[in-house]
Design brief:
- By secondary structure, the protein is an alpha/beta fold.
- Helix content is 32%, strand content 25%.
- It has helices at residues 19-22, 30-37, 50-65, 89-97, 113-127, 150-153, 213-235, 252-262, 273-276, 283-291; strands spanning 2-11, 15-18, 41-44, 74-78, 103-107, 132-140, 158-168, 173-180, 188-189, 210-211, 244-247, 300-307, 311-318.
- The strands form 4 sheets. Strands 1-7-6-4-5 form a 5-stranded mixed sheet, with helices on both faces. The protein has a 4-stranded mixed sheet with strand order 8-13-12-11, with helices on both faces. A two-stranded antiparallel ribbon has the order 2-3.
- A hairpin with a 3-residue loop joins strand 12 (300-307) and strand 13 (311-318).
- It is globular and about 55 Å long.
């Protein structure tokens, strides 16, 4: 028995914020953002919550799979922007969709979160009695941005993507590799939203995303191709045998650099960040959802995430 993808789902807020509109508030421009990141628009939550976006994506994945929510035994949500520290977003989603038999918990691995959550889910499915597992990446990062810091506020946005995995005689998950480098933990940070009031004093902390962009760029363009090569070696495949590369949609320049280091035409790297920006843990499942129309049976696909921690993770799938 193996594991395959049975359904995909995606959800984004209704409000679309263009570079032009953003530049009315921030000292930036459409040309500056596009030339450095590849981002043109992003979806920003006004009334939508992380729970709501995750639930909407989950419902679509369940519908696509044709599986009753009652038969889902595992729900994992990857997020750094939950609405509540407890209960977990996964528990709230399970309640909303009617997955009343599911084991539920959240994972915090930032932009690598979807791959980490998928590895945990697939491992639990292979080792235990779980038949159907729902893995969701969901973020409302706009509530955690300093809208005067153009190094971050032009990048991050909101959305959710869901994948329903099911046990099958046809195995689609060919290899996974994850890792962390805690020495880079201070390169991307977000202080906790609760728990900063001690008994004796109030600690004032800026609860917004802070990032060392140059350091993250060097990390991503070094570690991601290494991780991809490790996964390909496990499967005894070459970079040229991969039909589509779906990387975390952080920066177009990063994806082009990784393509160059792998010796692969950059056209093989799927991009949708021009529409959605950087949605952290939601980025890979959202991109997979958008790329599915391009995929055909038997295609080999690489999913690769990288982010705060520092963390990274790569999956090899067969469509």
């Amino acid at each position: 028995m193996g594991v395959k993808i049975a359904g995909l789902g995606k959800a984004v807020p209704q409000m679309v914020l263009s570079n032009e509109k953003l530049s009315e508030r921030v000292d930036t421009s459409d040309e500056w953002i596009r030339s450095r990141t590849g981002i043109e628009n992003r979806c920003i939550a006004v009334t939508e919550t992380t729970e709501q976006l995750a639930t909407s994506a989950a419902l679509e994945a369940i519908s696509a799979a044709g599986i009753e929510a009652h038969n889902i035994e595992l729900v994992i949500v990857a997020t750094v922007s939950p609405d509540t520290t407890m209960p977990s977003t996964a528990c709230l989603v399970a309640r909303n969709i009617g997955a009343d038999r599911a084991t539920c918990f959240d994972i915090t691995a930032a932009c690598s979160g979807f791959v980490f959550a998928s590895e945990v889910a697939i491992s639990m499915m292979n080792q235990g009695g779980y038949q159907n597992a729902l893995v969701i990446g969901a973020e409302v990062l706009s509530k955690m941005l300093d809208w005067e810091d153009r190094g971050t506020c032009v990048l991050f946005a909101d959305g959710a993507g869901a994948v329903l995995y099911t046990k099958s005689e046809e195995n689609q998950i060919l290899a996974i590799e994850t890792g962390s480098n805690p020495k880079g933990a201070d390169q991307i940070t977000l202080p906790a939203g609760v728990g900063n009031h001690t008994f004796y004093q109030v600690e004032e902390r800026k609860q917004t995303i802070q990032m060392s962009g140059r350091d993250v760029y060097v990390f991503a363009t070094t570690k991601v191709p290494e991780s991809i090569r490790k996964v390909l070696e496990k499967a005894q495949l070459t970079p040229e045998e991969i039909a589509v590369y779906i990387l975390h949609q952080a920066n177009s320049r990063i994806m082009d650099n990784v393509a160059q280091k792998l010796g692969v035409p950059k056209e093989h790297f799927f991009k949708n960040l021009s529409h959605y920006g950087n949605t952290s843990a939601a980025s890979i499942p959202m991109a997979l959802y958008d790329a599915k129309a391009l995929l055909k049976s038997g295609d080999k696909i690489i999913l690769s995430g990288f982010g705060a921690g520092l963390t990274w993770g790569t999956m090899l799938l067969e469509w």
